[in-house]
TrEMBL record:
Homodimer. Its main location: cytoplasm. The active site is at K364. The keyword Cytoplasm applies. It is found in: Cytoplasm. This is Glutamine--fructose-6-phosphate aminotransferase [isomerizing]. Its EC number is 2.6.1.16. It catalyses: D-fructose 6-phosphate + L-glutamine = D-glucosamine 6-phosphate + L-glutamate. Residues 42-181, 214-359 form the SIS domain. The keyword Transmembrane does not apply. It is an enzyme of class 2 (transferase). Keywords: Aminotransferase, Cytoplasm, Glutamine amidotransferase, Repeat, Transferase. The chain holds residues 247 to 615 of 615 of the full protein. It comes from the Bacteria.
Amino acid sequence: EKGGYDYFMLKEIAEQPKAVADTLLGRIDPSGSLTLDEVRISPQELREVDKVVIVACGTAFHAGLIAKYAIEHWTRMPCEVELASEFRYRDPILDGRSLVIAISQSGETMDTLMALRHAREQGSKVLAICNTNGSTIPRESDAVLYTHAGPEVAVASTKAFLTQLVACYLVALYLGQVRGTKWGDEIQAVIRDLSRISEEVDRVLETMEPVRALARTLAAKDTVLFLGRHVGYPVALEGALKLKELAYMHAEGFAAGELKHGPIALIEEDLPVVVVVPSPRGRSVLHDKIVSNIQEIRARGARTIVIAEEGDEAVVPYADHLIRIPATPTLLQPLVATVPLQVFACELATARGNEVDQPRNLAKSVTVE
Ligand code: F6R
């Protein structure tokens, strides 16, 4: 059942290339356009939508945060992302023209279910992105796009997260395709890159030994910080969440631009700080800004653990540890950048003697509010 791995989590991390490929399967036709017939909300209805609202919890919420960048960029439609547990209590503004997307691996998360019920009461259409066939959330939604990660047993979500991202990109690209967008050429190119991305995830997995070795040297630390910008910011949040739940360490993710507004005061000698660096080719301004952030924290003594694209030489002088990831379009980078953070957290948990698949106080499916 664990397929020769010590933990389900390791097995599920290793299954990610397949999970990603399976989630794309049959959804990109040979001409390079998307067929999401299973999304039973008609193209006409999708053209009438004037805003997207995403609700989810935990790791699925981080997938939603990343989806916002993709949806707004490719469709120019406003997209809000909200923690499902907060959503209905603030009387959100919703109507028949809002498309609500509920993201849930288990399909049974009570907070997410209550949020989608609230949305439907306001007349909004709800699309579920879910990994569990026939579970409550898809049953109560207007439409569902299943992620094909296969069963996820470890409490900490890994392969489900990557497939949630894939599903979110598909929805964003599909909305762009159906509604028309000025990014036609870019959308075509991204669909091509997406169809090859599982190989890139595979390549990342092959280079994880140094990440494991690094994690073991940090087992006695109390705190690890994570920084990112743009889609790297939710990746930083996800890296921190994995470390909290698995290693029981104090971990926080920040948007790197916020450093100077407070968090930089936390930097002290030898504090490990993981930095997710955006591609230097895409939004190069962001890349240059984050390189200065790395310089700033290193000058204050931080031990910098830098995740950067292959060929990005600008980070080399400031990286105490450098983790390379393949070049991808900016918006797709989370699919490769998250993997080292999962491995890092898993290895730290093991080094600290924690139960990897069943972290204390946590349950796989949270069916209470
Ligand atoms: C983190 C984790 C949780 C879940 C969250 C939502 O590793 O597993 O944060 O992501 O409880 O669960 P689902 O996706 O089942 O709604």
